[in-house]
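Regression test attached.
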Amino acid sequence: MSEITWNFDDLTEGPAWRGAIDGFNDEWIYGWAVSTSDPERPVELEISLFGEPVLSTVTTIFREDIARLMNRPVRAGFSVPLRDMSQAAAQKVLEHLRNAGSGEARIADILRIEIRGTGLSLPCSANLAGIDRGLLRPAVARRADGVSSREEERLRQRDRLLESTLDHAAARAPVDVLAFYRSQFYPDALHDGWYGRDVTDWADVAAARPLFDGHAQPRLPGNGGFYDLRLDAVQQSQIALAKDHGLSGFCYDYHWSAGQARMVLPIDRHVAQDYDFGFCLCWVNDGPSRPPSGDGGAPVTPEQHSYAGDNDFILSCLKYFRSPRYIRIENAPLLLIRGISSLKSPAETIRRWRESIRAEGIEELHVCIVETEPGMNPLEYGADSSCQYPPVGLAGEPVDEDICGLVPGWQGEIRSYADAVQGEISRPVAGHLRFRTAMPGWDDTPRLGLRGQVFTDARSELFGLWMRHLVAEAQEHLPEGRRFVFVRSWNDWASGSCLEPDRQGGTQALTAMRDALTPEALALAPLRPPPAGQPDPLAETRRAVESLVAANRALGALVARRGRGLWGGDASVFLPVAGPLMHVERQSDRQAGVDMVNGHPVKAGVDLPVASWRGLAMRGWFLIGGRAADTAMIALRDTETPDRRYIAAIRDHEDRPDVVAALALDSGLRNFGFTLNASLEAVTAGRYELEFLVPDPYRPKHALAVCPNIVLLVG
Amino acid sequence: MMASGSLVSVVLPTYCHAGYIADCLQSIHDQTHAELELVLIDDCSTDGTWECAQELLSGPLAQRFRNTVLLRNERNLGAHATINRAIAAARGGHISLINSDDRYHPERIATLMAALADTGSEIGFSLVDVFAEAGQAARIDEFFRLFALRQIHAVERDPTVGFALMRENVAISTGNLLFSRGIYEQAGPFQPLKYCHDWDFLLQALFFSEPVVVHEPHYFYRLHEANSFSGLGHVTPVELETATRRFLRRGLRGRPSPNPLFPCEANWPGYFEHVLRECGYDGHMRRERDGAVAGYPFAPEQLNPCG
């Protein structure tokens, strides 16, 4: 019978459940289980110890890791206290424990968790080794003797208190990052009529072409693909991803004109589903400032604003303002406005709005104008604050003349992202309340073609630097409760400014943003050095904190790489090796075998999926020219670009008497087996063939290769 | 701007490499970095290396250099003293060393200078391309097999280049070093250590500046009879102890290191201790700590014979 695994790579394979036992100590048994056919349904579990049925439970706990892997909010976790065991069951278990004596027991030998009615049991997690019987005994004995009810009550109270701490542990980050969110990823008849087109942004994204040498177009979406916002699951996973990377909310584009709201499906859904994530509105009131690409519809005349019409607008916002998820500043809903100057007397309009919503029970309103032109001051418009809107007002000269291979007819502008970041970092603090905004990149040629604007070399490290600066500035200069930083934007794909993962860079931009929000980055923020030439009283403190951060990161990396702690054997890393550095000569002999890859047996001829975050744990053996190799490496050879390899060193060798016996090899062969535990962090997604390499003893740059005929799909 | 315009002194100590010196000089001549000075110093070669070099540099080869200095030791002084003497005679703001049996990649100095300018570092080295004599079919010492590849893994294993250097001399040889005069004045001179003077110098320089590694095989290291078995196996434990303890002592002096990434307890609380034990330097560290506490009652500079 095939067994339950924790493999999510192929949900159709094996039994219709996934799960694992994650922990077993003297108080708790915990883990997770989920049905692949009906993931929302709780799974019933039967727990036995030493073959004695002792407890049963149901999966009810939300496990974020599993939910992410399943891409739905499944409640896959379970956790059972040992003290829920009946006295009779505890007495039986105690008997077994007495017979077994003290010492360490393999958990897999004594604990079995079965999915009710199937006879299938959960495997133990890889890092779950053993449990001290000596530790277990008093816990079970207490139960077997019958614990006093007072003691019982105390334990329950402790668990309740611990649990309540868990629920409220997510303290608010001292700086909130909000991302502009674009809705044009589903067809909306009303909107299409307005803009004279019947396509989503994806059409522009997919149709983009490179317009100069090194122009990275088309820039295609990553794992999420060309999504359609009509699907609930899309927005759900967007929010999960955003929260995961430290965002506090989306600032939805709110299209409202001539008495009608358009493209509001995601906003309405956010309110209806009450997603646990902040949001606010940005009124897109500047109309189609430029005609859309391709054949535009009828020319649109700018809307005539009237007090009455604009009053209808603010009333249309009320249902959003009333959502508990709506982002507020001191109880005033935060409303962004793009195109403030087209209002009929903005100051008067805003004054009337405040009155109007007060009558509806909303006492305050915080109006933030979007700086669609450089140097806009909110006070001139009767607004409360302003918010940057890059690329508007970014520093840096066009660099078009440095660009090679520009297509004829180019009328756009090419600028340097690094210059822009440089300019933003040295921008003085504004005299009014101003929220800063960073953008992970910009290239609107998908939308505007030859009239587009491109910021070149928008690397995620630069974006990270920009974010760190803005976060630091918000901490230092903005009052508490108003520490917001914006990102333009979450998903403006056709402008080349989005946080969402793309095919090339993956989650780099998101990760860079998250790193700017780590406790370490926040701790360092107020310790920024003073401008050059001024005394720096905090120099030593900063140096010490930086050292701690760097050391802790290095230790963290070690622990992560080595799985169980610092001294659990030496791990390797797969690193890219350029073709010219070595010549690989394939050997015709195939004396090689791989027993296990990440805990799974290996089938030849089948591509084996490997998640890159998990790394590669492998056990196997090989012989070169019938002999064992002292120095050996493992290569992942790109099947598309055979010259490209990632190589990791093998550090652990072992004898393989089983192979010697099975293949009737020379019994003197020693040390030709290996175990490898290597990080795949540097490996880009792709299809790779496995090679075992040993250095050629006669030619310094040659390696001899044996191929076990195994292909890995790294992703 | 600064990188391409500044004068680099190529310091070439020669000793009994008559057969290779022409190759070596040609590769210096072919550098794309314009401003070069050549300082050749012969340590009493007995095989005509000196005559050969003089002959070569009396021709058009010498015209490529802004300045050429030819020196000869009156008696054999050894590698460290020879290099120190040559650097004293050099005028460039940066020093680029080379062994007289090895070769440079044409872009070597330009790339390293650009890397120094980019990072603000004062010392750098590149990957090493080990090459064998044409037609040679002898077994190569394990130490030299797939050397560049192993360099990459050694450098990437740790969070900084400094930690990789703490474990071993990933630069392999003096010839692979390019550094500023400023850092030589702070961290130098090269100490009288037969095998370890280059590693010792790197570890000392590390205190002042985080080295930069150019991930291109820009140094061609020649394998031949005389050096092919010169892996680290021949290094005496005393030399290793000297270099290691001089390095540990730097970190214990209590002065913050100008290079904030220098491997020491103050810069890497916890992590340094871990690598220290992995390297097996705990014994050396204990002795250095005792010394630091006691104010080095036993001849404080005994580990620094020159200074």
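Expected vs. actual: identical. The two ends of chain B are 36 Å apart (CA to CA).
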